[in-house]
Design brief:
With 853 residues, the chain is of the alpha+beta class. Helices cover 28% and strands 26% of the residues. It is globular.
Length: 853
């Protein structure tokens, strides 16, 4: 295996050695790929841990193999005689910002008195215990729906085969980020490789034959949008150029309205795009006709694809002329032509592996346990998908990452900000992909701009806020157009959930400059809105939120009617508590701002408390309402357990028991029925430290929520649809089963199911800037920590005791309490922690304090 630095070959070569060696750069464990040494890497089947394979072409788009570089993407179906690559560009969306061409957002920042009156009316209804009226009145506080992520183009490939294929194999190599197809036809072996290069900004496809002159095929570009293709075949320019325009309006797929797709000829009303394909061959001839290219008698064909859109900025009209858009794509294509295929693929693989090989997981389960290898592969796939759909200076991953084949995709393939967008990035820090986190943080900065306008216009309040949906244009208003159900359309609390990612990036990185120059401004602006949003509940005297909505769920009134709006939903309180607490912690690092610490601390003391309901559950609403759907897919009231960390089985055992009762009740009534909700449930069980339930939940995800290619599915009708959040969320949940962290504490193997009899994971990151590798087998656990902070507490797995902590051959002094050990660290140094299982009934032999010897 290539790319491994010296010293890696023997690292983790045998779990029984119980050693972890740090190597490489970037990640402290870079190069320690799946824990395999060079000899093991060449063993039969070793690479299969990082491959997804099929023995037949994809029968539908969902079953294809995705490649992407954050900007461009393709889904490869792998058909033999006819294949179609679905092509995408991250900034090709419908619509435009609410501005005139050439102008920026901000012309209408004033508060609308009608909105203030509507908000006051909703609040009066809430505190009069009239939620039905509150729901009805909330329609006045709704704005337009989001834009839709658009399909760019389809590359059609028609092969001239006269005999049926044999030995067909379709593979997605996660380690190399290459999708491929191989088969034999008429005594010739054919192959196709596909990848999206981040360093060169193009998509590459190579067609090969193992006999000279056997490639006869036709290539064509089409689009589901308004577009026209032309082709040319002449020396040095065998090319197809597709020029088109996205709709100015694309209604969500769930809306039955006249003319859901509308185009405009006006500049800036819908954006122009260009997709350009060039071909070069080894042997044979190329001709052009009717927008297609025909290849005859080639042995190899290299297809390069570049694309560009008229998008300028989230707050500017996309009025770039089509000639300029085309020129941009042509420049990228010309630059890629300067490198031969071998160079391009090397540059691509090197770039991808610099991220992908930072972390890896190897699990070995009990005999007959088919879920364990799939769990391992899901962990690898989630990291691959995040790398492919979220890179520096791209848009963040949407509901389908960066892949889409429909003009009206499921839920507009937008940014759904009441769970799905955030879940996409749960694994970014823990799985050592902080680089891939920045597209989300960049978008939060855009939302702070538009969200300030929304806060003023809709509520007359300071700061910034975001509601249920966003899009390329950083839309932040409540959606629904006056007809949306308030249980999703009017939820105003996406801001504090999003800025948790900002604070978490600081907690993992320790980057004070980021916190001071970028992060805290976002946190403070969000806190200003939340402080203004709080209102005194005349019934309890506490500060609360109203209108308050537990995302997408409904409760039953005393009269048995369904309603969405009340006061003080648990999620609201959890988000605001967390935000204010994090702001106070941030100011302890960078300095207080205008006495904000004292102000936020005072507000925290006045918030409604969490409450336990009739079933012993953590209440979802301030009132112990009956749920319309006890098995609802959202578990928003469990936010303070995960992804928040205010609830913990050790620090807050009573609240943890209530949270456990909540998730158990949800699942008993059919909850966690979608892929993303099952991923969330798995993470919740992991946070509760219950390996058996986390393992069961993960098995349910594997059984019910993935297609044959392991892409996450949502059980929509009439056919399941792809949602990337489940893939990315389950990766985060698996990481949470292996390592948890809070402030200066990490927990080793807190929720490993019994069927994972031994394993090893490298490259996980913890809050405090620590990087961790763990191996476990035969009653022993060995962890290596590359310290990121000056003090570390390690919570031991249940039933284990400490053998020793070693740093450069020296035993390290430590302190111990009932749950953890604590020791001083030096940033950047490696600490080896050895544990062993205690004998049943035996008292721990570990002393309270150990002196260095």
């Amino acid at each position: 295996m290539t790319g491994q630095p010296p010293g890696v070959a023997d690292a983790f070569a045998s779990v029984s050695r119980r050693r972890v060696m740090a190597a490489g750069t970037g990640s402290m464990f870079a190069g320690l790929f799946t824990g395999l040494g060079a000899a093991e890497a060449s063993a039969p089947g070793a690479d299969e841990r990082h491959r997804i394979t099929a023995t037949e072409p994809a029968s539908e788009w969902l079953l294809g193999h995705p490649v992407g570089n954050g900007r461009l993407a393709a889904m490869m179906g792998g058909g033999v005689v006819r294949d179609m690559l679905s092509l995408n560009h991250d900034s090709l969306w419908s619509g435009q910002p609410d501005v005139s061409p050439g102008h920026a957002v901000g012309d209408r920042d004033h508060a609308d008195p009608r909105n203030r009156d509507a908000l006051a009316a909703v609040r009066r209804a809430v505190f009069a215990d009239d939620p039905i009226s509150a729901d009805q009145l909330s329609h006045a506080l709704q704005g337009p729906f989001s834009a839709s992520y658009a399909p760019m183009a389809d590359l059609h490939l028609e092969m001239d085969h006269r005999e049926a294929p044999q030995d067909y194999r379709r593979t997605l190599d996660l380690d190399r980020a290459v999708a491929s197809v191989t088969y034999r036809s008429g005594g010739t072996g054919f192959g196709r490789d596909l990848f999206a290069s981040h360093p060169d900004g193009v998509i590459l496809q190579r067609l090969t034959a193992d006999r000279r002159g056997m490639i006869d095929c036709r290539l064509m570009l089409t689009s589901k949008l308004r577009a026209t293709a032309t082709s040319t075949a002449q020396p040095g320019s065998n090319q197809i150029t597709l020029l088109g325009k996205a709709p100015t309006q694309s209604e969500p797929d769930y809306r039955d309205v006249p003319d859901p797709i509308r185009y405009s000829d006006s500049p800036g009303r819908g954006m122009a795009f260009a997709t350009i394909l060039s071909v070069e061959t080894d042997g044979g001839a190329i001709t052009a006709s009717e927008g297609a290219l025909h290849i005859r008698g080639a042995t190899t064909a290299i297809v390069r694809i570049a694309a560009a859109t008229g998008f300028r900025r989230f707050d500017l009209a996309p009025d770039t002329p089509i000639a300029a858009v085309r020129a941009s794509a042509e420049r990228d294509l010309a630059a890629a032509r300067h490198h031969d295929y071998t160079t391009l693929v090397k540059r691509h693989v090197s770039d991808h592996q610099a991220l992908y090989r930072r972390a890896s997981l190897e699990l070995n389960g009990t005999i007959g346990d088919g879920d364990t290898p799939r769990a391992e592969r899901l962990f690898q796939l989630g990291r691959y998908l995040l790398i492919a759909s979220s890179r520096a200076d791209t848009m963040p991953a949407n509901l389908q990452g960066v892949w889409n084949a429909a003009v009206r995709p499921p839920w507009s393939s937008n940014y759904t900000t009441n769970i799905n967008l955030q879940m996409n990035y749960w694994a970014a820090e823990t799985c050592n992909l902080a680089d891939c986190h920045f597209p989300l943080i960049d978008h939060i900065e855009r939302l702070a701009v538009t969200g300030a306008r929304t806060a003023r216009q809709f509520y007359g309040m300071p700061g910034w806020c975001v509601h249920h949906n966003s899009d390329l244009w950083a839309m932040s208003n409540p959606v629904g157009a006056g007809v949306g159900d308030p249980n999703w359309a009017n939820w105003p609390m996406a801001g504090p959930w999003l800025v948790q990612h900002v604070w978490d990036h600081y907690r993992f990185s320790g980057d004070r400059d980021f916190l001071k120059t970028r992060g805290f401004a976002l946190m403070r602006g969000c806190a200003e809105f939340c402080a203004a949003w709080l209102v005194r509940d005349p019934r309890s005297g506490h500060l609360t939120t109203a209108p308050s909505i537990s995302p997408e769920n409904l409760f039953l009134t005393a009269a048995g009617k369904s309603a969405a709006i009340s006061a003080g939903c648990t999620m609201d309180l959890a988000l605001i508590r967390e935000l204010f607490t994090n702001c106070i912690a941030a100011m302890a690092v960078i300095g207080d701002v205008d006495g904000l610490t004292v102000r936020l601390a005072g507000l925290l003391k006045q918030l409604e408390p969490y409450r336990t309901g009739r079933y012993g559950q953590l209440q979802e609403w301030a009132t112990d309402f009956a749920e319309q759907d006890p098995g609802h897919r959202h578990i928003s009231h469990l936010y303070p357990l995960y992804p928040g960390d205010a609830i913990d089985p050790v620090r807050t055992p009573a609240l943890a028991r209530a949270a456990r009762a909540s998730i158990a009740r949800r699942e008993a009534h059919g909850g966690a029925s979608t892929g993303w909700s099952r991923a969330w449930a798995t993470a919740v069980w992991a946070r509760l430290g219950d390996g058996a339930q986390a393992g069961r939940s993960l098995s349910a995800f594997i059984a019910n929520s993935v297609a044959a290619n392991l892409l996450d599915t949502h059980p929509a009708k009439p056919r399941p649809v792809f949602q990337i959040d489940g893939n990315l969320g389950i990766t985060a949940a698996i990481a949470e089963m292996l390592l948890q962290s809070r402030e200066t504490e990490i927990a080793l193997l807190p929720a490993v199911p019994s069927q994972w009899t031994n394993g090893r994971v490298v490259g996980l990151r913890a809050r405090g800037g620590h990087e961790v590798a763990i191996a476990w087998s035969d009653g022993h656990v060995d962890a290596t920590v590359i310290a990121g902070d000056t003090r570390l507490s390690v919570r031991l797995p249940s039933g284990f005791e400490l053998l020793k902590i070693v740093q450069r051959g020296t035993i390290v002094r430590f302190e111990q309490d009932a749950q953890s050990i604590t020791f001083e660290t030096v940033k950047g140094r490696r600490y080896d922690v050895a544990l062993r299982r205690t004998a049943p009934g035996a008292a721990s032999s570990t002393p309270r304090e150990s002196d260095a010897t």
